[in-house]
């Protein structure tokens, strides 16, 4: 079933390539159907997931498929479900479906558009299921390449520059990550005749380089790869350009699903494979985290372009994940570790829902008004659907209780108090700035006088179908956080690392 | 008769007979029969490929009084060389169809193949020179068969003069080896050389490297490549960017591992530095190119630099030889795919400017997609062949202790991505200027299909190929 979910988008994409280009509606609905089936399948996996974390064949990874891929170098096709990975799989499938709903009327180069999004879907889903470093890397880049084309072909004015910058940044990071993967691989004894092994379980068991000076450089390579994708300060420079130039549906996938590749790598690869090193350099990760949070919020405050503003808030939100990883290294208390890791995982899902929704709203607004400058708006309270959703998503993002953002931020900051209160103070500064920021957005767009000539229709039915599920899920998870926390806590890599 | 083990040189005999048959045949054919030599050469190469493949399980031995090796290393390289010649024959035959040189091109191609195959097995300094000359002369001829006016003539002359000088310097270096050890046999040289004066050994090594650096376009003897690649017609460029390189690496590896055992004269360090300089120069120069063939020329210099990484650690790391073989196979597929598209483009517009690709994704979506795949593979994007090739190279560099080189290579690959994307930008990210109708010659789709299939298969399911390449480690020394 896991394999089917991973490759269903790709198969749908290939089917679309074979269908006649003269019938765009058929292509759109086929893509929608394929994404819908993928989401159904991932929900099926969610329901069947053993929350005790003890099910499945080996190492707590459930529904595992292990096939020889390149036996001579110890790389295998090894996929399975961890709690964290499963949460990301469902999130990705959901966002993909909503994007397909959103783009139904889009008619420009439909074949390529649909194929690229579906190919990216396969990359993302495979990445979150991969249990082998080489396979992880493969899916990492398979998810990356379509984004380049999506930004480059359907983007705004500066799309060629933004696409190239995005690709080069990520590629530089991913090659550093590849070198670190290879170093970890060379430090791990293999099985079945191969000298070394790429298996995440095997590397976690071998703990290569623990306590040696080389460990820092290996960790640095991983940090570069995941940090660019996250993105963390000072590797974030590509993000505003890519987001501003990307088409709305591209921004949604980029922020909602692609940034999670970096976060997932931090939690699922860096922490369990190099726990001693993370412990030693926990301060570095935590510092990167709080700097990103404060910087992201302040930079967002300085923006007038709404899309750019939302893009910068991603740096703030993903800073929580980096901070959580650092706090995990700085503490020895299992309770605190569980708290911050749960918070980080929650943040990943919550950010996907809230920021995904935000980018939809801002995209629609920009499309209708012809501008995204915050000063050009005002008085949009008159559009009840739009105003309601924007308010809900903004309050969710600033951490209002009963919405998903609150759980994430409360857990990470609470954990920070348990480690060293100054981390918490710095994090709260970031939180305060971003609170002011969202209130300013709400005030600027919804309140005040409607400028002359601003005539905007409220959201139509299709757009509601694309955005309401995100808002509803955020509310649901905010009220019942255990729905998600129960699943991510069953992540072997996370719990295993917690107990270490 | 002693020393005449003809059973051991089946592929060489097949190729040699084919050459002898093709020379008169090419002179006599008229009219519709002019395509016959290409067909005959195709069958001959296939036969040689089958004969070679049958030799894979053989245990290693020296034949012809120790002048020629039959071992896993040589056999795998022969498979690579003959296979690449077969792949290159398709676009070449398609290109020359209806032109003056139609019957002669396959003859030159077969001669070059025989030269490459012989070089892969040679254990004797004399044979090395002979086969290198055979390979190079046939390649000069092939470039010269393009009747494209001044630029083609210039390319031929440049190729010929550079090649002649480089190979002469190399032959001079080989005489030093003979002088130092009193033997022409690589094996005996290897045994005697460690006792020789290190200074002279180093001089000999440097001089010999000149010839191989020319064949594989390594710095500082890469200057000819951009002009020659740009001057020759695209299918021929594809051929000379692949086959002489594979053969050059085969000869270089055998020479280093047999005649300079245990890193004698510090050659691993020398090669590592050459690798770094070659990839950096190729990549940096490629950034500024505006024409596809020149861009691919610098790209192929950079690719040679990557492969040299594995050569540098070939004496100490087990996986280095298979990594070299894998990369060369991957390089053959992706590079020939790229050049086949360039050939089609050239046929239409008469030139190969990057701007000529503008909007190709709308006018010829299939071709654009395949060229994109080839370029992404050259850039090392998974799941294509170039990706795994680069993983293997980086891995052997790290296990050989060349961490600096692995990091440097990774930086280079980032630069590489930029210029490999530039044609993609033209094809996908810009609107077409007028109609492009790609000319479809019968050979091109086949060549493009086969090479793309190879690029994909090699990346997705490399296990069988890697099992075959494991034979490379069976090197007589």
Automatic annotation (TrEMBL), chain A:
It comes from the Bacteria. The lineage of its organism: Bacteria, Thermotogati, Deinococcota, Deinococci, Deinococcales. Keywords: Membrane, Transmembrane, Transmembrane helix, Ubiquinone. One of its GO terms (molecular function) is NADH dehydrogenase activity. This is NADH-ubiquinone oxidoreductase chain M. Belongs to the complex I subunit 4 family. It is found in: Endomembrane system; Membrane. The keyword Transmembrane helix applies. Residues 130-430 form the NADH:quinone oxidoreductase/Mrp antiporter transmembrane domain. GO terms for cellular component: endomembrane system; membrane. Its main location: membrane. The keyword Metal-binding does not apply. It is a multi-pass membrane protein. GO terms for biological process: ATP synthesis coupled electron transport; electron transport coupled proton transport. The chain crosses the membrane at residues 79-102, 114-130, 136-154, 166-186, 206-230, 251-271, 283-302, 309-328, 340-365, 386-408, 420-443, 464-490. InterPro entries: NADH_Q_OxRdtase_chainM/4, NADH_UbQ_OxRdtase, ND/Mrp_TM. It comes from Deinococcus marmoris. Signal peptide: none annotated.
Automatic annotation (TrEMBL), chain B:
One of its GO terms (biological process) is ATP synthesis coupled electron transport. Keywords: Cell membrane, Membrane, NAD, Quinone, Translocase, Transmembrane, Transmembrane helix, Transport, Ubiquinone. It is an enzyme of class 7 (translocase). InterPro entries: NADH-Q_OxRdtase_suN/2 (IPR010096), ND/Mrp_TM (IPR001750). It is found in: Cell membrane; Endomembrane system; Membrane. It catalyses: a quinone + NADH + 5 H(+)(in) = a quinol + NAD(+) + 4 H(+)(out). It is a multi-pass membrane protein. GO terms for molecular function: NADH dehydrogenase (quinone) (non-electrogenic) activity; NADH dehydrogenase (ubiquinone) activity; quinone binding. Its EC number is 7.1.1.-. PANTHER family: NADH DEHYDROGENASE (PTHR22773). NDH-1 shuttles electrons from NADH, via FMN and iron-sulfur (Fe-S) centers, to quinones in the respiratory chain. The immediate electron acceptor for the enzyme in this species is believed to be a menaquinone. Couples the redox reaction to proton translocation (for every two electrons transferred, four hydrogen ions are translocated across the cytoplasmic membrane), and thus conserves the redox energy in a proton gradient. NDH-1 is composed of 15 different subunits. Subunits NuoA, H, J, K, L, M, N constitute the membrane sector of the complex. This is NADH-quinone oxidoreductase subunit N. It comes from Deinococcus marmoris. The gene is nuoN.
């Amino acid at each position: 079933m896991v394999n089917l979910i991973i490759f269903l988008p790709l198969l749908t994409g290939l089917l679309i390539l074979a269908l006649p280009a003269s019938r765009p509606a058929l292509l759109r609905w086929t893509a929608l159907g394929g994404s819908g089936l993928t989401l159904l399948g991932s929900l099926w996996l969610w329901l069947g997931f053993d929350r005790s974390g003890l099910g499945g064949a080996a190492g707590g990874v459930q529904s595992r498929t292990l096939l020889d891929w390149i036996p001579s170098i110890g790389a295998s096709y090894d996929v399975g479900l961890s709690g964290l990975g499963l949460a990301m799989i469902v999130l990705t499938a959901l966002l993909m479906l909503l994007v397909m709903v959103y783009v139904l009327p889009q008619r420009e180069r439909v074949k390529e558009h649909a194929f690229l999004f579906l190919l990216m879907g396969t990359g993302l889903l495979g990445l979150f299921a991969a249990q082998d470093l080489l396979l992880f890397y493969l899916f990492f880049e398979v998810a990356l390449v379509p984004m380049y084309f999506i930004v480059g072909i359907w983007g705004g004015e500066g799309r060629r520059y933004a696409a190239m910058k995005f690709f080069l940044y990520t590629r530089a990071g991913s090659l550093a990550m590849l070198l670190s993967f290879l170093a970890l691989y060379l430090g791990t004894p293999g099985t079945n005749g191969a000298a070394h092994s790429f298996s995440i379980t095997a590397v976690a068991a071998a703990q290569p380089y623990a306590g040696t000076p080389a460990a820092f450089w290996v960790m640095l390579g991983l940090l570069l790869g995941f940090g660019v994708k996250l993105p963390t300060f000072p590797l974030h420079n590509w993000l505003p350009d890519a987001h501003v130039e990307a088409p709305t549906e591209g921004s949604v996938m980029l922020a909602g699903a692609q940034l999670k590749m970096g976060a997932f790598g931090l939690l699922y690869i860096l922490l369990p494979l190099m726990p001693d090193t993370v412990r030693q350099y926990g301060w570095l990760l935590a510092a990167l985290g709080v700097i990103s949070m404060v910087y992201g919020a302040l930079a967002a405050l300085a923006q007038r372009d709404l899309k750019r503003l939302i893009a910068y808030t991603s740096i703030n939100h993903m800073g929580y994940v980096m901070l959580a990883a650092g706090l995990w290294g700085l503490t020895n208390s299992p309770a605190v570790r569980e708290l911050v890791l749960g918070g980080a995982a929650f943040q990943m899902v919550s950010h996907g829902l809230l920021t995904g929704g935000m980018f939809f709203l801002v995209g629609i607004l920009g499309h209708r008004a012809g501008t995204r400058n915050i000063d050009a708006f005002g008085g949009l309270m008159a559009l009840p659907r739009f105003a309601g959703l924007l308010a809900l998503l903004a309050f969710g993002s600033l951490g209002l209780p009963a919405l998903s953002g609150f759980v994430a931020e409360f857990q990470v900051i609470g954990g920070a108090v348990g480690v060293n209160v100054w981390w918490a103070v710095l994090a709260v500064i970031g939180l305060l700035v971003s609170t002011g920021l969202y209130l300013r957005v709400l005030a600027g767009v919804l309140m005040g006088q409607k400028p002359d000539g601003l005539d905007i229709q409220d959201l139509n039915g299709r757009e509601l179908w694309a955005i309401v599920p995100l808002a509803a899920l955020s509310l649901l998870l905010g009220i019942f956080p255990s729905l998600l926390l129960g699943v991510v806590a069953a992540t072997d890599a996370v719990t295993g690392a917690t107990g270490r | 008769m002693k020393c005449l083990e003809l059973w051991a040189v089946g592929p060489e005999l097949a190729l040699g007979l084919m050459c002898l048959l093709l020379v008169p045949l090419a002179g006599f054919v008229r009219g519709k029969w002019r395509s016959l030599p290409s067909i005959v050469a195709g069958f001959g190469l296939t036969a040689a490929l089958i004969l070679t493949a049958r030799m894979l399980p053989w245990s290693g031995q020296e034949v012809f009084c120790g002048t020629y090796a039959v071992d896993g290393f040589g056999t795998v390289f022969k498979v690579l060389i003959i296979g690449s010649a077969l792949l290159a024959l398709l676009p070449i035959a398609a290109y020359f169809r209806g032109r003056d040189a139609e019957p002669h091109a396959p003859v030159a191609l077969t001669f070059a193949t025989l030269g490459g195959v012989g070089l892969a097995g040679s254990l004797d300094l004399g044979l090395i020179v002979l086969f290198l000359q055979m390979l190079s002369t046939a390649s000069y001829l092939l470039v010269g068969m393009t009747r494209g006016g001044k630029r083609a003539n210039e390319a031929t002359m440049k190729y010929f003069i550079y090649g002649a000088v480089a190979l002469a310097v190399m032959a001079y270096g080989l005489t030093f080896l003979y002088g130092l050890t009193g033997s022409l046999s690589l094996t005996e040289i290897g045994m005697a050389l460690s006792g020789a004066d290190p200074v002279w050994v180093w001089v000999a090594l440097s001089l010999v490297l000149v010839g191989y650096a020319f064949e594989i376009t390594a710095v500082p003897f890469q200057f000819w490549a951009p002009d020659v690649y740009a001057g020759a017609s695209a299918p021929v460029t594809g051929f000379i960017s692949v086959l002489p390189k594979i053969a050059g690496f085969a000869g270089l590896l055998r020479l280093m591992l047999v005649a300079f055992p245990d890193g004698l004269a510090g050659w691993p360090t020398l090669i590592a530095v050459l690798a770094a300089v070659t990839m950096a120069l190729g990549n940096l120069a490629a950034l500024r190119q505006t024409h596809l063939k020149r861009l691919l020329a610098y790209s192929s210099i950079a690719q040679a630099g990557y492969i040299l990484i594995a050569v540098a650690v070939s004496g100490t790391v087990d996986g280095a030889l298979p990594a070299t073989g894998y990369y060369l196979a991957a390089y053959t597929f992706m590079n020939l795919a790229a050049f086949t598209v360039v050939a089609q483009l050239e046929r239409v517009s008469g030139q190969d400017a990057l701007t000529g690709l503008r909007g190709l994704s709308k006018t010829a979506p299939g071709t654009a997609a395949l060229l994109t795949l080839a370029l992404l593979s050259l850039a090392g994007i998974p799941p294509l062949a170039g990706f795994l090739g680069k993983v293997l190279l980086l891995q052997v560099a790290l296990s050989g202790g060349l961490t600096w080189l692995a990091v440097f290579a990774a930086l280079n690959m980032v630069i590489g991505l930029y210029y490999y994307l530039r044609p993609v930008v033209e094809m996908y990210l810009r609107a077409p200027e007028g109609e492009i109708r790609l000319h479809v010659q019968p050979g091109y789709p086949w060549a493009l299909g086969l090479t793309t299939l190879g690029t994909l298969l090699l990346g997705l399911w490399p296990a069988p190929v890697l099992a075959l390449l494991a034979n490379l480690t069976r090197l007589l020394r």
